Amino acid sequence: MASDRVFGLVVIIAALAYIAGAAQTQTSFMSDPVGSKTFPILVGSVAAVCGAVMFLRPDAGPEWPRPRALLSVAAAVAVMVAYAHGLKPLGFLIPTAVAAAILSYQITPRPAFNALAGAALSAALFVVFRYGLGLGLAPLPKGWM
Amino acid sequence: MDLLSNLALGFSIALSPTTLMLAVAGCFLGTVIGSLPGLGPSNGVAILIPLTFSLGLDATSALVLMTAVYYGAMYGGRISSILLNIPGDEPALMTTLDGYPMAKRGRAGDALVISGVASFVGAFLATIGLMLLAPVLARVAYLFGPAEYFALYLLAFSTLGGLASNNQAKAALASCIGLGIAMVGIDNATGMPRLTFGNLHLVDGVDFLVAIVGLFAVAEVFFFIESHGRNSSIGVKLEKVTVPVRDILASGWTMLRSSLVGFAAGVLPGAGASLGSFLAYMSEKSIAGEKSGFGTGAPKGVAAPEAGNNAAAGGALVPMLTLGVPGSGTTAVLLALLMTLNITPGPTLFADRPEVVWGLIASLLIANFVLLAMNVPMVRVFVRVLSVPPAVLLPGVTMVSFVGIYSLSGSYFDLLLMVGFGALGYVLRKLDVPTVPIILGILLGTHMENALRRAMVLSDGDPTYLFSSPIAAGLWIFAVAGFVAPMFLRRALRKPRAADA
Fold this sequence. Notes:
The complex is a heterodimer. Chain A is mostly helical. Chain A contains 5 helices and no strands. Chain A has helices spanning 2-23, 38-56, 67-90, 93-107, 111-132. By secondary structure, chain B is mainly alpha-helical. Chain B has one domain (2-489). In chain B, strands 1-2 form a two-stranded antiparallel sheet. In chain B, β1 and β2 (193-194) form a beta hairpin. The chains are: A mainly alpha, B mainly alpha. Chains A and B meet through α1, α2, α3, α4 and α5 of A and α7, β2, α8, α18 and α19 of B.
């Protein structure tokens, strides 16, 4: 119940922001009867109606995981964000090994195994990507080579 | 004979050593992906698309490789359904109903062989159906103008969304999210940026591959982390594999009927493989009657959904190739592949690029025989794949997704966006908001808007033009019916849940 109400409200707000954003689109000298604002505004309006329906007639709430499980999903998001930032400056091998080991730990916590899995994945994928597919990945941080 | 000469052209391409090798490799890879618990055709194909580019293949080869992976994953999906009671993705769900009980009674080998043969029958007949029906539909598609296309897109959203969720508002919202994302970036008609909210990275728009990999693959990783992979350890041992000839012969008609039902469900825009396997299973269950033991490990209960979903997989290629409207999550992913290869699906594809279409069809025919060989005599090889621990598999999937997306643009912004889509997909699936319509929206958004704008230019802004032709009006009626009907049918057609292990 509560989940759908909250989500419905979020959808309505996001849809209104979207419509406002669409309304500010600059028009150009080339124009057609529909123009570049109509369709996005239409889509935003339908989304807002859907949000309102969810708010007024919510379904039974989903089974949210316990706070600890939710926290570990949040941690996984954080790891991935850090990995996205680290991939370029730090090269492929080290961030991949670390990120894979952490994700592995989050699924089955056995530290020695996870560290090994991370290192092995990192090395194996590097070989496949670099030599099998010919992607230009830097293996190590700049300046180490 | 037109058809035969086209087929000859197709086989001349498909039998070239490189193409043949790609088809075999794709089948193998696809079966492995399909049999991995938690990975199915859609996320499996999604994470491979970016990597396919780095191979530098031409359009036909890339398409052959990926559709072989697609077919392979459809075959492979049954392995984890039967042995672990975990469907790789939704179409494989129905196979767990009888497959897992059979496996628990020590008939895992029989179930795998029966379902393998059923998959072959379904996929093979569907490929023949595709060959016969697609050129006809392509000719009809020439009659489609912008008004008809607009209505057709609407139909795809309403039928796909209508079946994907238990709440129509949520299904419609999912389509809107997708369409909304598609609008971000430069508007092609005017050259003005839209909805970028001042972010320079968004001027080029959101790459659909980023969204697909995020919503399908990364979100799946979050689900695994939430459950700590605990759903994946219950398995059944596979004893020796023999061919249960009697069961296969006894389910011959079941396979044929299910293939037909599945193919028809697959051809409907937006309906797809889940509906195909569901309808095939339910109709066979009602034909067989109460005493047949459906749900407790009946061989026919394994044959029906597998023939149905593989036939639907082939059927779903018909609207995707002829109209550019995918019939399922996976064909949406394949459409994304076509669009990145600069191939515009639609009637002109059949006239302008026959080598692509017929090469693909011939490769599918060959792939089916390869898959039958891999999935019946060699099934043990793929059963081993199941023993890969999730603690290695899921980090691996994540890293492959990251590198794949990174190889497209080399931008960390796309990676962040992908993680964002993953988190979004996790939350939305929790709330029973389907994610496939989002993909469909991102893929079709610009086309849908252009169809609307062109229709309005043609009619000088008269909105009634949208329903003026009989084809368009018919599509509108089906679209409305497809959206409204599930509200009433839902109680009658309640999906049976997978039996608790």
